[in-house]
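Inputs:
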Amino acid sequence: MTVANPEVAVVPERGARDDELGAFAWVATVDHKRIGILYLLTSLVFFGIGGAEALLIRLQLARPNAHFLSPETYNEMFTMHGTTMIFLVVMPALVGLGNYFVPLMIGARDMAFPRLNALSYWLFPFGGLLLHFSLLAGGAPSAGWFSYAPLSETPYSSTAGTDYWILALLVLGIGSVSGAINLIATVITLRAPGLTIRRLPLFVWMTFVTAVLIVLALPVLNASLAMLLVDRRLDAHFFQPNGGGSAILWQHFFWTFGHPEVYIMALPAFGIISEVIPVFSRKPIFGYEFVAASTVAIAILSFGVWAHHMFAVGLGHRADLAFAMGSMAIAVPTGVKIFNWIATMWGGAIRFTTAMMFAVAFLLEFVIGGLSGITFAAAPIDWQVTDTYYLVAHFHYVLFGGTAFAIFAGIYYWFPKMTGRLLDERWGKVHFWLTVVGFNLTFFVQHFLGILGMPRRVYTYPDLPGWGALNMVSTVGAFVMGVSVVVFAINMAASLRRGRVAGDNPWNGWTLEWATTSPPHPHNFERALIVRSRRPLRDPLPAGGAPARTAAPESHVPDKAVVAVWAFIVSEAAFFVVLILSYVFFNRSTKAAAAALDVSKTGAFTVCLLASSLTLYIAERSLERGKTRVFRACLTATLVLGLVFLGGQAGEYLKLFERGFAVDTSLFTSTFFTLTGFHGFHVLLGLIALGFLARLAFAGDFQDKSSRALRAVGLYWHFVDAVWVVVFTLVYGRIVL
Amino acid sequence: MTTRALLLSAWDPGTVVPVACILALGAYGFCYRGRLESRAAFFGLGVAIFFAALASPIGVLARGYSFSAHMLQHLLLMLAVPPLTLLGLPRERGARASPPRDRGAFGYLGPWAAGVGAMWLWHAPLLCNAAATSPTVQALQTASLLVMGYAFWRPILVPRVVDRLPAFAAILYLFAACVACTILGIVVTFSPVEVCSAYVHPVDSLGVLALLRDGWGLSCRADQEIGGLMMWVPACLVYGAAILATIGRYYGEEETLPHAAGGAP
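Outputs:
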């Protein structure tokens, strides 16, 4: 029996275009591998910045009553540290690994939408720069990474820092959502023949589930950020109690995003661990089905437990109880995964490479973080230790001991594939031990500090017995970690030049990325791939050598444009649900609306919008039947009807402004203008897309009977109309009823 | 009245409910005589829950006394009775009959809207009050909940397996229902106004109000909160369990796709 370990020795060649462009080729690239590396390098830069901020924080806290940093600077430091590490380091690093390896592991040539991929990447450094630009514009944001209202409102955060924080997160959020849509479309439509969902490598599966979480959760943050920005720049009162708004609402919205975000950062890490541990134990993963299915369970439960971040707010015992139950339930699928990984190692031929050591350390540290997490699920314990250093210790064990360790494991595992050279193992071990020792020194003692009562986010502390010593230990640990990062960077730089040449498959891995050269050819694979099991590189070759591509007829593959538009629609729906909920929340009675709005007039324009959906439907049908003239006429009619609706909305706005209704007049006007304004903006975007289609149609395009572009834009347009039906019913319809 | 007395005395089966139960069981026994499987227990459980939801103290309290009892009844009728009875029907392999029907993505919008709409519709204050006070409206509510519940669960659990929604579509279908149900649960839980004002001042014909308010400490505020939380957490757990069962079934199925080595089909 021969093993299909293709010996295609192809030196990766870049095209002529790349040679012409030189270093600029990296800026202009749409290759998922280069974009993945750009993600990783950029996040490494931000890791340096966020790490330096952490060291400044630890220096300030090394001694009691210290004045190394002013309280204001300290607030800026912990805000920037948290925001940077979450949005500019962990998420992009995981997306970077996903970008590089998901197409390779499913045997695709690239992502589904390479240009969209480049856009998603470039929004990331742009968002990072926007966040750091605040330093030049009057001061960094200082309201913490979750910017609780009303602290984040203008009266309490008067510098532009919070505005830049909002804008940066909006930009990053849009980049993350577009990247996630791309990943979803890639995994659904571009898998190699025979690679069914049942056989998907777990890293791909978990990245896919993460992408679904991003599509659902990030829009919730974006909508809340938009409302906070309207508060700050247009004097609305969404989250300001003194104007009738609700500060608690911000917390609900933020954690509706924030808790799934925890799993957005954890699930891909689980995926890395699920690749690394089996390969270095020489065994397939124990209970593949359970690991895959429990990931979905975690993803679903993650949306139902956000209020455990708010036990101290006072939601009432009954709500606390329900959320405590949900939070404990989510520990079950996560906890059993740990046993899956241990059972995978059990009886395996374990090789303790640096990657494997980081993966094993991940198990230990993540269990500590998970256990302290369960203590937080019990509301009474939460009341005692929330917002103390016990909490800081908990989430660092999850996010550093968990996610960051997994990212290190992933980088040691995949570096040879990305560069063609192995990372040096001796330096790797030094890096590993410095990280483990430094990390535990820093954060383990913080459990004790928290139980002793040391609050987080306070720039200094009194000289109470034991506090100074424990904090000094923590600071020393932080600097050990700082050294470990330097070792890591040196190791990468040195190995890149002089590292041992890796070959195609240095670890004897069995997923598809090891079936090509290291680094892979621009088009990834030299031959047609066919997958027959979960470990394709161990599949026996069929008789007669490599089979032709036609040998594996794939079941029905959906169109990538349609998949992407559906994913986009889901994300937009999440966005509008938040805006609609805040409208309903702030407008329980319809008095204010009745005084301001003219139902019958808007009703007429609503009919126009609904009619435009009908004309677009007829347009699609006539294209199918080849009636070009009807198609063009209906497309034009759709455009005109959409414009009429938009004109009607503009007229309504002008009239309201004339009568003295502005965004900051009352909660009704704030919510009304925000909701209908964002809807109008979406109508406008739909009209622009339709305008492009109309131009193409009149230029004689659309010779085929079906058009992916028309279907995609059509779906989006119907969605925008459906949203308006809901908005109209809630805003105008309720007045009549 | 004590809790014990309530649990013992507040049974009101009427005539329709027992007759319906007996007819259902009888029809089941007649149709599948000779080939009864262990899954018949699911059907029996479904019928028993139907009986309990309407005739037991749950049903009695739901009639104008307690919003959370109403919610429990509502959830049992929609999320327990239809899926359990459908599960109880023997599977048809579907080889003999017509090929699977392809309804397209929009074909499932109707059943989905029925399942979710039943939740939202019957908690509009007007309808909720009417159902809590008028026996006719309540009978109508019960019937519509069952019908809409069956419409919702049919694509997931229809006995002929080839007619079921494909696994990943089923996950989306169930997850979207869970989200819709969660949103309503949140609104009901945190809403400062009463969703159903009929439950604030019940007509105390059985004399159990004192037990509810003082004995159980169930103020109207708490009553509504518990109702909202029930719709939010346990309801979503039902959808979540269905999702997990779907994934489990998916991984348990034989790989039926044409394999690589076989050449063209």
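Remarks. Residues 54 and 81 of chain A are 6 Å apart (CA to CA). The interface with chain B takes residues 193-194, 196-198, 289, 292-293, 296-297, 300-301, 303-304, 316, 318-319, 322, 325-326, 329, 530-532, 542, 547, 550-553, 555, 577, 581, 584, 588 of chain A (CB under 8 Å).
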